[in-house]
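Memo to structure team: turn this sequence into structure tokens by end of day. - J.P.
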Amino acid sequence: MSAAEELFPLRVCNVCNTSDTVCIENIRSALARGLPDVQPHQPLKDKALVVLASGPSGPAALEKMLETGIDFDLMALNGAYNVALEMGLTPKYFAMLDARAVNVNFLDDPRKETKFYVASQCAPDVFEVLRKNDVTVFHKNTPAARETVPDPAVFFGGNAGTIGSTALSLACEIGYGHLILLGYDSSLASIGCSQSRYQPQN
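Reply from structure team:
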């Protein structure tokens, strides 16, 4: 058999780790709460935004960032929020995209000083934990969201991707032109797992 004969077409499917049915139910629940949507094209801010993802390199990289003396705002993604709190830092922003209910464990201690950006497809448990906090909703550009969210609405990113990639467009829309990305490695570092803090769902 030749090398050409061994080739076969590869089909790539952009799907969420949660069914469309669950995502649609979650979106309807979020919309019923009447929370504000992200307002796009906000004025450009002077500060840089450090976006802290959950990769193992995140805590050490953030420590080095603090040593530079650069004035910055901090956005923590998913479990990186707890990492920042453990380091004595309260992020100005938090962002979550994942639709699984288990992700409520990222929010053991939601602070009043944080503005929470939560995708409409996130589980109702997440919104319930944040019911007394400053929450703004954003919509991921997926078939489930486009089917459920009424016009006019702003949809973020393509119909695939993680909170790591979606947070970049979110950060730009809320007015940050200088982004510093930390903890985007998702590598098996010396701590032996792909996150900077243990996440049972991963």
